Amino acid sequence: MVITTYRCDCKQGFTVCVQSFFSFIKQRNVRRSRRDQVRENEKWPKLDTAEIDDVERDNVTTAPDRIQFKGEFERLMKEHFLAGDDQEFFDYSVVDNNSEYDDLDIKGRDAEEAYFDDSD
Length: 120
Hints:
mainly alpha
């Protein structure tokens, strides 16, 4: 980890000092971004289109595979939804707080169990 120091020249006032500090940080981040981009380009050489076509041809999925993948995807999405992990996309409180969606058989069994537990 490299720690970069910035020398504050407060003779110009605090606002100017803060502005020049942020300018310094912005320039440093631009330099780092350019450096990282160059490193990334060096790491991954460009493929010619013939190589890309070969890769795409090798990655073709068959109809049975697609059906299997679709089934797995749907199963995972249902599990994800039922576990309550889709809060970003679905408001679970609308369903949780709506008594019309309650299973009355389960509620009845729960009430019976509570009654008999209390009588003991």
